[in-house]
Amino acid sequence: MIRKLFHIWIYALLCFTGPLWAQEEQEEVSFELKLSKEKLGVNEKLRVDFSMNQDGDNFIPPDFNGFRIVMGPTQAVSSTFANRKRYYSKTYSYILAPESKGTFTIGQGTIVIAGNTYKTIPKKVVVTDAVDTPNAPPTVADIADENLHLVAEVSDTNPYLNEPISVVYKLYFRNSLVVTNFDFLDNPKYNNFWNQEIPFSKYRIENGMYQGQPAYFIVIKRMVLYPQKSGELEIEPMVLKVNLEVPTERRNFFGERLYASTEKTVSAGKRLIQAKPLPEEGKPEDFSGAVGDFEFTVDVSRRILNASESLQAKVRVKGSGNLKLFELPKLNLPSALEVYEPEFEEEVRTTLSGMRGEVSENYTIVPSYRGKYPIPEISFSYFNPRTQRYERRSSNELTIEVAEGPTAVPTPGTPPAVSTRTPVVSSDQFHFIKLRPNLEPRAWTPFFGTSTHWISWLGPLALIPLFLLVRKRREKSQQDVEGNKIRRANRLARKYLSAARKTLGDKEAFYVALEKALHNYLKARLKIETSEFSKDKIRELLSSRGADDAVIGEFLGLLENCEMARYSPFSRVQMEQDYETASQVINALDKNL
């Protein structure tokens, strides 16, 4: 009876879990073409694998034009279960030998899986001259050379004069490379360009394509350039020194791939820009160099006012283009109006597409006489690269009416517009200096015998005891020679630790400053000279003073990091950790000692 119940329970369990196993076995079908290398010598061999994650039938390989089949097809099958999931792999492999130099394409392979036909994506192979060591495993430098590239992507190589272009520097890498750090060896100067860098908060790794192959990239720098002369212009190359980790063929005890550190210098290469001159046909006489798409307006803050009151007239250009690289047209005002020098204002935002916003000049105008004053229309011309022609915008004619105030009295031989004017004060905006201030004399107050008189005499006498106390403490401090040495060393250690904080990100300067801070701290606390510093001596002296072994180990670890930093790449995160560790270790040693 018990055996029968047990069989029923097993059957129910299998019926319940069977659909789950079947469900987990259903996964997306993958059928891929994998090459051992994409570039090889004519005397080397190429391995081609067609891999699938589910079993299939009727495999049809491509023709392998340009190659001779040395071996294959060989078949490898793998099937495992882990975490209630089945992992299956089946691979057809070929070993090919190139027949000549050139660029060849490994075509599509086909397979039928669960009644559906799947095809691989073709891949190109470059066959070069014979190599000295055919089929030798690539070195770390070879892998870095093949998979690390710096590219300057230019939005337009044939712009008009003063038309914006963008240059984005991208560092591409693939094949599991890990970029740990990079430094600028040569930064372009962008001669004959007005330029502005577009900043960003942090570097990010993004997915992209390089020469038709998937790759990762990091945006290194973004620039907006406006060519300032026509003809062939050169963008100087950018050069980077990159520290990176390269995967090797070796693996550790757990089967994880080991990485090797290397350093590589990459250059984006120079880029040539062919800047087109602006056309002479149809160029307006008042053209001041504006290139873009703009709106132009002239506005006044008020139309009706009294004499000696002021108004603001604003000449404004708004839109997208070289807003910082041209002059605004000037207002043509009657000479009877008093006009102050205009104040220039700009609200311009620069992105990769160029400058956008507005620029303006604000005129302060003060009429002194009653009447009506016209502000004639003025025009603004610019070249529009989108329509490839010059365009003009004109303002409307405005009239200012001065309702109250004196009437201009013309003098013989002088036009009314420039007649002598008498200032009239009729508002709170403008005032004149008073020639009769109506000052009143103040009564004389005696100084001698007052409280201020006695404080000024007796105050210095009261400070004499305080002065003697400070002098006594200073003499005592000067006699403490050993204590003065310790205090000076402590100050010096804090100074170098502060210097290390300021140089975070600069590996060499940071670890030099940190090492000096640690050495001077030991000199202050252990009273030994720099020549006596060795790890065994430090450990012995700190242990004899009662320092904890863990703190001693952290201190010696910091000194080792300072030495290793000369030969190994250290990231900013590692520097910040070492700085925090140094502060904690010094505080802990102070408590122990």
From TrEMBL:
<protein>
    <submittedName>
        <fullName>Oxygen tolerance</fullName>
    </submittedName>
</protein>
<dbReference type="Pfam" id="PF13584">
    <property type="entry name" value="BatD"/>
</dbReference>
<dbReference type="InterPro" id="IPR025738">
    <property type="entry name" value="BatD"/>
</dbReference>
<feature type="transmembrane region" description="Helical">
    <location>
        <begin position="454"/>
        <end position="470"/>
    </location>
</feature>
<keyword id="KW-1133">Transmembrane helix</keyword>
<feature type="signal peptide">
    <location>
        <begin position="1"/>
        <end position="22"/>
    </location>
</feature>
<keyword id="KW-0732">Signal</keyword>
<keyword id="KW-0472">Membrane</keyword>
<keyword id="KW-0812">Transmembrane</keyword>
